[in-house]
Amino acid sequence: MHGERDLVRLLADLDVERRDGIYTFVSGVWPELEPEAHATVVEAEGETYVVTVDDARRAGATVEFEAAWLTLTVNSSLEAVGLTAAASRVLADAGIACNIIAGFHHDHLLVPVVRADEAIELLRSLSSH
């Protein structure tokens, strides 16, 4: 399996990057003429798209949550155990909402944009760097 599986190594090498922009979640049909969603989740109730707040507003979608997109830059395996638990725990302990999306190479966290800097500091505190 691709990527690191050992939690001690994952946490030792953990760093966080913030993607440019402010993001939100929209549900329903995403207009074909709009830019592609940055993430899509298919649920029984319909599709959920993660898009920029600007794109959502241009499409007439309601923006209920403004998020910063944080990427854990460590190359984690999809079979790694504990990384997202550690990340969500440190944020939960500080009262910061966290929505996690797993990619093939990295885990991505969407946190309230107003608490992004705090979230980055907390996540970096998990590392031994």
Description of the structure:
The chain is an alpha+beta fold and 129 residues long. The chain is 25% helix and 28% strand. It contains 4 helices and 7 strands. It has helices spanning 7-12, 53-58, 83-93, 116-124; strands spanning 16-18, 23-27, 39-43, 46-52, 67-72, 99-102, 107-112. The strands form 2 sheets. A 4-stranded antiparallel sheet has the order 1-5-7-6, with helices on one face. A 3-stranded antiparallel sheet has the order 2-4-3. Strand 3 (39-43) and strand 4 form a beta hairpin. The chain is globular. The mean pLDDT is 87.
Order of helices and strands: HEEEEHEHEEH
The global form is globular
> SS-based structural class?
alpha+beta
How many alpha or pi helices?
4
Low-confidence stretches: none
User: How confident overall, as mean pLDDT?
Assistant: 87
Radius of gyration: 15 Å
Q: What's the total count of β strands?
A: 7
Q: Summarize the main sheet.
A: 4 strands, antiparallel
User: Approximately how much beta-strand content do the residues carry?
Assistant: 25-35%
Main-sheet strand order equals: 1-5-7-6
Percentage of residues in helical conformation = 10-25%
Q: Alpha-carbon distance between the termini?
A: 26 Å
Please identify the oligomeric state: single chain
